[in-house]
Structure prediction request, 454 residues.
Amino acid sequence: MSIQSFEEKSVPMTVDRVLDDLGLGRFQWKLLAICGLTWAADAMEVLLMGFALPGISAAFELPKGSPAATMLLTATFAGMLFGAWFWGYLADRVGRRSVFLTTVALGVVFGLAGALAPTLTWLLVARFLTGFAIGGTLPVDYSMMAEFVPTAWRGRFLVYLESFWAVGTVVVAALAWWVSTAFAPAEGWRWLLGLAALPGLVGLIARIGIPDSPRSLLARGEEAQARAALQKVAQANGGTLPAAPLAHPEQPPRVSPAQLFRGVLARRTPLLMVTWFGLSLGYYGIFSWLPSFLRAQGLDLGAVYRSTLLLALAQVPGYLLAAYLVEKIGRRVTLVGFLTLGAVGAYLFLLAHDANTVLLTSALLSFALLGAWGSLYAYTPELFPTPLRTTGMGLVSGVARLASVVSPSIGAMLLTGNLTLALTVFAVCFALAALAAWGIGVETRGQALAETAE
Prediction:
């Protein structure tokens, strides 16, 4: 054996170096498809209550604008709030894969339980538990994707994953449209909730063959398992895993969530929380009530569903542009640009006085805000170190869910004549989110993921 080959086998290699050498291949595309399917299923679960509410109101005799109707819209978000924090923390402690499987399984079970709800209380509890389960898929899925993709492709793959939200939006809008024509409203909502839970079952089966994150395994001192996970990547991509040992990141004796507010994270974490809160409050405040708002503008139920379908399609170019720009000009600038466009779009929506203009300005908002979401999902996991990545993702996404709980109450002003006040609140939220994102002051494009927590 030559001295050079001996050195190549003895010098430790980082996971980033191994993944970059193995390159982009079948493993990453398969992981994207599997996580994307579940992310689309999550979008369906989050958005379907806006479509199911008229039928639920008919079945349980809820008056228009009743507190119970608002509680139904917020129950899923409230569950996601606690789920994001709980599952995100757990995934950093016990590994990504177990949470990766558990949350999807529970989401299917509780989603079907909601479809069979005999009482309104049962339905509220089922929707909360569904949110609690799917709240864990966000921090885990994005951490898994970030930790398996080569550096040069990481940003756009994270945006690609977020773009499956548009797929779920299109599917749930089309499904709601079909259900509205096939069943009476008091019966159709059960079919809608039941059918929306089934894609998660397919996603669960597909996830079984995915290994745990090698970065997470190394952070917990499990080098043999980390090598086995990278070996699966090498086999799927047609490459060869280097014989060199893996570089062990030196971790402090104990990593705790408090470290999200220390060192370099002391600035990043609060600003990310503001960004996630502002974008979520504005997005869900507008779009959770948009079907009801369009109905109030004189559109029949079928036209409302068709319009929502068109708005979902308007998200696609927003995602595609974000996927291009995060690698071309960077995550931070792209995110701030889309948030600024969202703030402008909110005021253009305010100036709309007929159904067609409302639809056009809504499409602009859909384009801008989903481009912002795509950029934010690409940016955030890269700002946290591996031992705190899912905990950090869980924290900021939980803050977003907190905004989601509040947003339907503010969004209800769209239907009560306080349109100017509601849209001013949302525009200010987008502007503050843009300022906070800019204030982070860090660009992660082309950078290796941080492996150690300070």
Summary: The longest helix spans residues 26-60.
